[in-house]
Amino acid sequence: MSSDNSKSQGNSEIVANNISKSFGAGPFAKEVVKDCSFSIESNKLTVMIGPSGCGKSSIIQLIAGFEQPTSGEITMNGVPITGPGKDRLVLFQESALFPWMTTYDNIMYGPRARGEGGKESTDLADFLLNKVGLEAFKDKYPAQLSGGMQRRAELARAMINKPEIMILDEPFRGLDHMSKELMWEYYAGLYEEDRNTNFFITTDIDEAIFLADRLLVMTNLPTSTRKVIDIDIPRPRKIDDVADSDRANEIKTEVMTLLHEEAMKSFSGGSKAAADFLEAYSKRSG
Amino acid sequence: MSLRTFKENLFSKGALRGIAAIVIFVIIWEVGARSEQIFGFRVPFLGLVPPPSSVFVSWGGLIGEPSYWQSWYMSFVRVFTGFIAAVLIGIPLGLFMAVNKTFYGMAFPSFEVLRPIPPLAWVPASIIFWPTQEMSIAFVTFLGAFYTIVINVLGGAKSINKQFLQAAQSMGASQWDIFRRIIFPATLPSIVVGSAVGMGITWEVVVAAEMISGGGSSGGGAGGGLGFFIWASYVGGSYEQIIVGMISIGIAGYFSSELLRQLGGYLTPWLKTR
User: Fold this and answer.
1) Whether residue B27 is found in the same domain as residue B126
2) Does residue B33 sit in the same domain as residue B97?
């Protein structure tokens, strides 16, 4: 593997090679990731989808460097990941905006923490505030923002750091459907603007297909890569167009079938989440 | 507060209820205390207490007495000396225990053994330790607030959402920056709560310490603090003054807590928005 830093198309920026991760030790050890290999390509939006509770969040902890794999290796541009760094920024499932800072101070946190709070950063903060539609809310505290606004503020707070790769862990979970679709458009717009490397985890098939360049479908616990699908729907995408697109529906059926098989496996293993999925699946196909 | 909002607050339902309750309480007290004259028998408990009217008369006489205000002043000085020392030592200690595992391992067991010892149990020992009576009282007062502040700060700093730390880390923040701009503000609400509770305990402790130690070095009744004021009134048989002293402490405690509430609100503006 080359340790080349260039971001040419198709370059694998992050490579996970046969990684496994267990929590706990001895007879109580629980394996959440097993012999899992995948790559995140430069300047693409890679979406990882899998049944809920399948160990996707653990993969994020590993890529971010908050945890180390039990075996195997994750490399970034050929260099093994040993700890957190500002080249890999994580957007968590629940809002991690600092409650004691205003929207603006939250966005400026990264630059100020690195001593880069100058005009270049404040200009970028203003630009991003405008981009995510929060100019009027820059002096509000997070508790004064709606759920969707909080997620947008967090997107801006991450993007101001110009990370080489943005990692998003089910960032729009818990939003109502309308806010969610609005967030897809905001987020896709931001992504299309600079085409940075993005890694996005979700359990929502529509979200996955609307956003992804590449889709990684994961198996159930302990998780590994089941299939990689290239989403060749042209950008910029419109939500209605994607909903009507034959190609999108084809992919959706394929992904549903894969996830259904995975859910069947874990349902026989007694998983409540899998039972929920199967019920929803049978309603849909019936 | 403008005069108008002041009037609105004064005549709001909540305020009127509060005033009505106090008025009713004072009437019951007055009637109960004079029950022997009115009904010919003594109501239990209240019949032994001087009536509010004579308490107010006695209070009116004291308002002009410098020694009465000296008692206020002395107790305030002791409460704030002890309290400020507890804040200055307790907050850094609690924070340091929260962020440093080695120090936590060393300090926490001794801290937990010392904590259950009531501050008043320290009175004799601190009279022996400290060169002046004044210092012993301040020390005991300090202990009253100290443990509460440390335990609150420690608990607050340890329960910080892990994602705040991870988010800051992944944005390239240094350890010092994480401490200064994440851990410290995240702990501020607990610091405010711990201080408010600590302040309450300081007043409890200072009064008892003044009674036990005989009012400090200035002695002679004057300048002995509100606790000694009550004790001296009891010894001198002036029951009205005992109650004046008790109410004075209530008012003093209320002002101290209100001051802390205002300060706390100013330090944690984001909590008001919830």
Assistant:
1) no
2) no
Q: Does domain A1-87+163-239 have CATH number 3.40.50.300?
A: yes
Number of domains observed in the structure of chain B? 2
Question: Who among A96, A100, A140 is closest to B163 (CB)?
Answer: A96
What would the pLDDT profile of A261-285 be if each residue is shown by its tens digit? Answer: 887 777 666 666 667 777 777 766 5
Q: What's the gap in Å between the CA of B187 and the closest CA on chain A?
A: 10
Count A/B contacts: CB-CB distance under 8 Å. Answer: 69
Boundaries of domain holding B152: 54-273
Closest residue of B to A105, CA-based? B181
Residues B138, B192, single domain; the answer is yes
Chain A contact for B267 (CB, 8 A cutoff):
no
Q: Tell me which of A58, A100, A103, A116 to substitute to probe the interface with B (most B C-beta atoms closer than 10 Å).
A: A100
Confidence of residue A4 (pLDDT cuts 50, 70, 90): very low
Which residue in the set A84, A142, A144 is minimally distant from B170, CB to CB? Answer: A84
Residues in chain A with CB shorter than 8 Å from the CB of B274 are 143
Q: Residue B167 and residue A96: Cβ atoms within 8 Å?
A: yes
Q: What is the CATH number of the domain that holds B194?
A: 1.10.3720.10
Residues B91 and B184 in one domain: yes
Please report, for chain A, the start and end positions of each structural domain, with discontinuous segments joined by +. 1-87+163-239, 100-160
pLDDT in tens, A216-258: 888 887 888 788 888 887 888 888 877 888 888 888 888 888 8
3-state secondary structure string across chain B: CCHHHHHHHHCCHHHHHHHHHHHHHHHHHHHHHCHHHHHCCCCCCHHHCCCHHHHHHHHHHHHCCHHHHHHHHHHHHHHHHHHHHHHHHHHHHHHHHHHCHHHHHHHHHHHHHHCCCCHHHHHHHHHHHCCCHHHHHHHHHHHHHHHHHHHHHHHHHHCCCHHHHHHHHHCCCCHHHHHHHHHHHHHHHHHHHHHHHHHHHHHHHHHHHHHHHCCCCCCCCCCCHHHHHHHHHHHHCCHHHHHHHHHHHHHHHHHHHHHHHHHHHHHCHHHHHC
Q: What's the whole-model pTM score?
A: 0.76
Distance CA B164, CA B153 (A): 18
Res A10: pLDDT? 54
* pLDDT at A43 > cutoff 60: yes
The fraction of chain B above a pLDDT of 90, given in percent, is 46
Give residue-wise pLDDT tens across range B34-63: 888 888 888 888 888 899 999 999 999 888
pLDDT classification of B217: cutoffs 50, 70, 90? very low
B151 and B240 together in one domain:
yes
